[in-house]
Amino acid sequence: MHGQGRFVAEQGDYREGEFQQNRFNYRGTWIDILDDVIKVRELENLLKGDGDIEKIPVIFCLPDGPHLLEAIETTIQRDNLVPFIVRDPDLEDYPSLVTREDDENSSYHMGHIVVRRRRHQDYQSPLYERVRKSIQTGGLFSLIIGGNKEQSWGDSKQAVPADWNVEQWHLDSYFDRCSLPVEIFNPKVFSGRPDIQAMFVNPENYGDLCRFCIVGTPLKQEVTMEKQLIREEVVERFGYCVPLHRCAIIVLTSLN
């Protein structure tokens, strides 16, 4: 696009004035119009997907740290997806790999984020620190939206909030370029964008992966090898608050 004219985006936004080689001069800065369009479409894909739950991979995994770590690494590095981890209701709890805080790994409860925001407290710094730590150390950042008991969500003195299904529990209410960028659901894009990683780490860590995963509540039904049943339950319970089309479901089970 070159010369005088108007560029109208799909959402109805427009740029009008002088263009040079697909660039528009906005307040003294030349903006790449095509780059903006590409980024908008990327964000739409990250947030919405095509709604086909059949495409969500389901991976069965033994409930121990080494096997789970292998499944997480495969999901992130090979499949470029975010692990969404659930467990067989017969298991007592999740491996400490996805619930502990140490020099490399970190975890945080979604309920804490919601409660802190309700109280007008800083809920972004804990997210920022854990994303930064994961990139720097190569450890895991587990966002926990469940635990051994659902009563552990948020404030330990409260049961599961009655408003769990309202918007303030949706992850897209918390996406922020400086604390929880939406690109975290596309690991390769996140690691390949220095302009995004610059918010968290120094140049020596540009290109390093953020090993982000989500830990859900135990499945309600006994685990079988029927992957579609597992997909349907996870989508029904979490599909409105997590972009599951960018996830792979890892099922912890002792079934062979």
Characterise the protein shown here.
It is globular, with a radius of gyration of 20 Å. With about 260 residues, the chain is an alpha/beta fold. Helices cover about 30% and strands about 20% of the residues. The protein starts with a strand and ends with a strand. It folds into two domains: about 5-45, no CATH class; about 55-250, no CATH class. The protein has helices at about 35-45, 65-80, 110-120, 125-135, 185-190, 195, 225-240; strands at about 5-10, 15-20, 25, 30, 60, 80-85, 105-110, 140-145, 210-215, 245-250. Strands 5-10-6-9-8-7 form a six-stranded parallel sheet, sandwiched between helices.
Entry summary:
With 256 residues, the protein is α/β, with parallel strands linked by helices. It is 29% helix and 20% strand.
Please specify the SSE layout and strand pairing.
Blueprint: E1 3-8, E2 14-20, E3 23-26, E4 29-32, H1 33-47, E5 58-61, H2 65-78, E6 82-87, E7 106-109, H3 110-118, H4 124-137, E8 140-144, H5 187-191, H6 194-197, E9 211-215, H7 227-238, E10 247-252
Helix/strand class: alpha/beta
Flag low-confidence runs: 147-161
What topology, given as strand order, has the largest sheet? 5-10-6-9-8-7
Name the beta content range.
15-25%
* Residue-averaged pLDDT: 80
